[in-house]
Amino acid sequence: MTLYSRVRPLAFTLPAETAHDLGKRTLRAAQSTWPTRTALSSAYQYEHPALEVDLFGTTFSNPVGVAAGFDKNAEVTHALEALGFGFVEIGTVTPYSQEGNDRPRLFRLREDEAMVNRMGFNGQGMDRVRDRLEADGTPGFPLGVNIGKMNSSSEDEAIEDYRRVFDRLSPFADYVVVNVSCPNTPDEFDEASPEHLRAIFETLEAENDGDVPMLVKIGPDEPEESVLELVDIVRQFDLDGIVATNTSTSREGLESPERSEWGGLSGAPIENRSTAVIRSIAKHTDGDLPIIGVGGVDSPTSAYAKIRAGASLVQLYTGFVYEGPSTAKRINRGLVQLLERDGFDTVEDAVGAGLE
Ligand SMILES: Cc1cc2nc3c(=O)[nH]c(=O)nc-3n(C[C@H](O)[C@H](O)[C@H](O)COP(=O)(O)O)c2cc1C
């Protein structure tokens, strides 16, 4: 029995966001002293040469990262590194601080190993995040920065929002993600429309002197033809990849009473849908466009399924909440066994291996 399996029932008696805040405070305390950070590293890090991934001009020591939303304000990047993750995507970061939606806005769906959230882009804004990255130093593993617009912004203002956050935070980033797929922010206009995407990418392309790899994050609910249309725009602008997928508005097959809450669904129920989106992008691009796979990853087999479907890296949020601090180590150790079983020398060799 792990320590977390004993702590979890207690943590789960707290409202989900309270437990999350408490967990983050614990991680922040743990990363702040050298002995506690080292203790975490020696308990949770797992290294193996087969896990290394070279992508976006940098090396990921393993392919398992923390998805956007967990560390919106870059408060615990060093602790996440010590817990054995291969990278973290901070954000979504907006130009100014925002409260987000009223609480409660985060719900556990325990029977479904899922969560529903309608946080609504709460965050401290780009200046606080920048100050913190300067004060704490960037972590020793790759850092993704997920950028977004203010909830109140019009279509034109949104373009300027992305430009400003990009300008302020891209110097710290190994890659930047444009998030146009949040299902719980006000949708005054279609953020993922081809015209709007073109306007964003044109603006950011002009801003991107440092050639920071740029990706876009998509949702799991779009029909295949819309996904492929977006992929074509991504290629037209020579973007560096796609993060697939965000949370879902679907409630199909759920059992937990909290399924009636509105917001984005994450965790086990979206695993297959998200893997299907990855597979269709990989097929459409002949595996040429890097994909970060996210949605329902909580085990070696679920991570491996996304890699075989075409993801070069995977991320998770909900799986971390349910599985606890040893999540990355467990998944990475299991991945090495799966690679050996199937005769792959490295994770990179297995990317897209399941596409017929
Ligand atoms: C509480 C919560 C907050 C999130 N906030 C963001 C966010 O700010 N930006 C974003 O791109 N994705 C956000 N996500 C989506 C996750 O990054 C991820 O795409 C989604 O949860 C699916 O992965 P999972 O099944 O491993 O949780 C959030 C997810 C959760 C559960």
TrEMBL record:
PROSITE patterns: DHODEHASE_1 (PS00911), DHODEHASE_2 (PS00912)
Listed GO MF terms: dihydroorotate dehydrogenase (quinone) activity
Region (Disordered): 248-267
Gene3D superfamilies cross-referenced by the UniProt entry: Aldolase class I
Compositionally biased residues, Basic and acidic residues: 252-261
InterPro entries linked: Aldolase_TIM, DHO_dehydrogenase, Dihydroorotate_DH_2, Dihydroorotate_DH_cat, Dihydroorotate_DH_CS
Protein name: Dihydroorotate dehydrogenase (quinone)
